[in-house]
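In this section we walk through a basic example: taking a raw amino acid sequence and producing a predicted 3D structure, encoded as discrete structure tokens. The instruction is simple. Fold the sequence below.
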Amino acid sequence: MKGLAFTSMRVGESYSLINYGEKSEFRLIEVLDRNDYKLQDIHTLEHYNMSDLVKFGKGEDFELRELLP
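The resulting token sequence is shown next.
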């Protein structure tokens, strides 16, 4: 695993996640519980949960990075 751990993410900050070749860029809206987060896509403004992005596990390319302004 490269990049940040989920526990280091902060509400209001933007992040990039690569998993199984798919890249997602989102803003953390709310911590739902210890293992799940409410996110907002920074391009489409769609809301979804972190569990939706990792429901099939973490691929070898899994990488979480903070997007700097």
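Looking at the output, two observations stand out. The chain is about 5% helix and 50% strand. The chain has a mean pLDDT of 93. In the next section we compare this with other chains.
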